[in-house]
Every structure is written in C-alpha cells, then in structure tokens.
Design a protein that fits this description.
Layout (H helix, E strand, L loop, with lengths): L14 H20 L3 H17 L1 H17 L4 H7 L3 H15 L8 E6 L5 E8 L2 E6 L4 H12 L3 E5 L5 H17 L7 E3 L5 H8 L7 E5 L2 H10 L12 E5 L5 H13 L8 E7 L5 H10 L3 E4 L1 H4 L5 E3 L13 E7 L1 H12 L4 E5 L3 H10 L4 E4 L18 E3 L7 E3 L5 E8 L7
Parallel strand pairs: 3-4, 3-6, 4-5, 7-8, 7-12, 8-11, 9-10, 9-11, 12-13
Antiparallel strand pairs: 1-2, 2-16, 14-15
Length: about 425
C-alpha cells in the first residue's frame, strides 16, 4: 500500500510556494512512474475507475452543489451542460478511464531506427513530457480524463479546475487518488490545486523547471491569458469555429441529418458546428433551415438565406467569427467549393471543418485544402473527440502546428529522445 497521503499538504501562505511544492512532488512522482511497467499503470487506472463507480452518490452530490451554485451565478446553458453530471455521464467517465488502461503504452515505444554507414545504430523512442499542468473550466470530466492520460503516458499532472466545478473536481480527484494508492502508485502523480485563487494560475504559468507544459481547456479569456502570460510551453486552442459545407452534390437526407446533429447534438462542445455553408447549386437549402428550426435552433443568415425563410434572423459580421456554444447557427450561401474554401480560410479557427458531398473529387480537394486540425467528409463535426477517435479520452484538441494537433491523448503527451548504440566508434 502506498503510504502517500491523499490530501494536499498544508497550503502555504502564497500561491507560488504552493505550486512550487506541488511541482516538486509531481517531479518526484514522474520519476517513479518512469520506472513502472505498463501493467502497473493500467492497474492503477482500473482501480481509479472502480473507485469512481463506488463513489457515485458522493460525486453526484458534489456535482449537485456545483449545479446549484452555477444556476445562482447565472452560468449559461452551455456552461451548465458542460458542468452537469448524472449516473450515465459518470459511468462514461469511468469507462473512459478503463479504455485508456487498455490502450498501448506509448512510453518507450520505438518510432524509428537506422544504422549509419559507420555502424552507429540510431533510434528514437517515446518518453513522457514529465509534469503536465492542466488549467480548465466547468468540465469535471477533464479531471478524470487528464489524470488517466497523464498516468498511462508516464506523466505526473497538476490539475487546476475552475471554481464552477470545485466540488465535483475534488470528489473525482479523491476517488482517482484512492485508486492509485490501491494500486501502489504515487498519489502525487495526480494532484489537484486546492485553492481557487487566480494567483494559482499565474504561479503555474511561471513554474518553469517544475511544470514542463501547460494545457488550458476553457473559454477564450482563459486560453488568451495562458498564452499571454505563460513562461512554460503551452498546447492550446482558442475557439471551435467549425464549418459544415453542404456541396451541390450532397445527398439531401445526409445533409439534413448531419446539419442537425453537428449543431444540436450537444451545443456546448468544442466540436459543435457554428457555421453552415450552402452551395448555391444545392437544391434544397430550405429543408435544412426548417430542420434546424424544428430542432430548436436559432438561425442567422446572409441575405440569400434570409429570403428563404421568415425564421432566419440577420447575421452580423461578428456572427461568422463566433463560437456560440449554444443553439444558434449562422448560415451563408457560397459559390461552390471555391467559395466555401475562401470563407473557411477567412473565418475558421482551424479546429474542425466538414464537407457533405457525394462527389469524391470535390471531397478529396476539400480534405487536402482545408488547413484545420480535423477535416471531415460526410461526418458530423461532433465526432471531433478523442474517445470517438479511439484514443480513449482527450485532454483537449490542439489547433496549432507544433508538437501535437487534433485530439491530444497518450501519444500527444510524449516527446522523444535519441538512443545511439555504438561499438567504439570515434569521430574522425
């Protein structure tokens, strides 16, 4: 039995001292994890999932406190949806942990190997990043997802959740840490910052040498602050301004189903479609508008869309750059694929963009020319999710070009090192 305490140490008088202490403990835990076999890490995750299932009543009671406070504080419907847990969602969280436990362990995996003319054998192998700081808002599932992915990839994680989910996060973290102790793994491998003061975020952003990378997951304000202030490398995306382009050669039934699902399945997720582009050659745009309105969606459109239905409001210039995270969609008529590509290039956040078409050549051109982390053909943008990609879970979706792109899961939490094996070679 691991003797490490499940609770954080007494909180120092200031945030930098607290984060420094947590960072040092995380660094020590990461070194222990590096020596653990895959089967040991997987056992820890299975034990953590079991603890979450055993504590359903406690976790849901904690979440109810957060939901009550959220309603009192005027959280939006989208934020409340992200915050809410029920028995089904909590079971999904535990299942996701088990799924991560069953995935291949990337740490130590050989990427490639080559033998040089002088006989040196060079290989690249994956290694953990080290200590990963996760700063997030409103999503208690991130507590478990980040912990599971960090542990299985050999990293220690320091979690700083938003005040909206403080009780839920603490309950989930306590269950997860208990599982680690049950499996004789270091509880300090997954730590939750015990204070909600914004100073703790600032201290994490300045913790170079203690935290190796920061991953923010939240609203534009949070991510912008992290990117502006961090002295630690950041892996982030700002918005999910996602497009669904309905080509003139789209199947009308597919177009309706995909438009409604991509927008309305869950409006508060980052993979939700925010703008629909309709080819002027598409024969049935009104049916798409009617289906969205019937599903409870507010439709904002350009002039060409507005004349089709009295239910369409005028889209402002700002609408084309808006991540609604709500039952609102903007629709524009475009001149074929070129018009869609131009609009996406001007307004996409490079998260997820999709095309609906039965023309294979058009689809391939869209897939090749749209410069987003995820590009889809005849599929809902709501599939932009690490679990749906077979990654078990995700810490977030990265839209930049460096290190990782798209859903960040186990492989995205590793880097690599070179191993050089010789037989006494000296350089002339």
């Amino acid at each position: 039995m691991n003797a490490q305490a499940l609770t954080a140490p007494p909180m120092p008088g200031d945030a930098p001292a607290l984060i420094a202490d947590m960072g040092a403990r995380a660094r020590a835990a990461a070194k222990q994890l590096a020596l653990k076999a895959t089967v040991d890490k997987a056992a820890g995750l299975v034990a953590a999932a079991a603890q979450i299932r055993a504590r359903v009543t406690v976790i849901l009671a904690a979440n109810a406190e957060d939901m009550t406070a959220g309603r009192t504080n005027g959280l939006s419907g989208a934020m409340l949806d992200r915050l809410r847990l029920d028995a089904g969602r909590l079971a999904g969280i535990a299942d996701a942990i088990d799924a991560v436990a069953a995935l291949p362990d990337p740490s130590g995996a050989e990427i490639d190997r080559v033998t040089r003319p002088n006989g040196l054998v060079l290989s690249r192998v994956r290694v953990p990043l080290g200590v990963v700081g996760i700063i997030y808002e409103s999503r208690p599932n991130v507590t478990a997802d980040a912990a599971a992915l960090g542990l299985m990839s050999g990293n220690a994680v320091i979690l700083r959740g938003g005040s909206e989910a403080v009780h839920s996060n603490r309950a989930i973290h306590a269950a997860f840490a208990a599982g680690l102790v049950d499996a004789d793994l270091p509880a300090d491998a997954v730590q939750l910052v015990p204070m909600q003061d914004r100073a703790a975020v600032g201290a994490m952003l300045r913790a170079q040498g203690l935290i190796d990378i920061i991953i923010p997951r939240g609203g534009k304000g949070l991510v912008a602050r992290v990117q502006d202030e961090a002295r630690v490398p950041v892996l982030a995306h700002l918005d999910g301004i996602n497009h669904l382009y309905i080509d003139g050669a789209a199947d009308p039934a597919k177009a309706i189903d995909l438009a409604v699902n991509a927008k309305m399945r869950r409006t508060g997720v980052c993979g939700a479609t925010e703008t629909i582009l309709v080819d002027r050659a598409y024969p049935a745009p009104l049916a798409i508008i009617d289906a969205l309105v019937a599903a409870g969606c507010e439709v904002r459109g350009d002039k060409a869309i507005m004349v089709l239905s009295p239910h369409v409001e005028t889209a402002s210039t700002a609408d084309w750059d808006c991540e609604y995270l709500d039952a609102i969609v903007s629709i524009a008529m475009v001149d074929g694929l070129d018009g869609a590509l131009a609009h996406i290039d001007a307004h996409s956040s490079r998260h997820t963009d999709a095309i609906v078409t039965e023309d294979a050549a058009t689809a391939e051109r869209f897939l090749a020319e749209v410069d987003s982390a995820i590009v889809m053909h005849n599929a809902s943008t709501q599939f932009a999710d690490g679990g749906e990609f077979g990654l078990g879970a995700e810490i977030g979706i990265a839209t930049g070009r460096l290190h990782a792109r798209g859903p960040v899961a186990l492989e995205g939490l590793t880097t690599y090192k070179w191993l050089v094996r010789g037989t006494g070679q000296v350089r002339p």
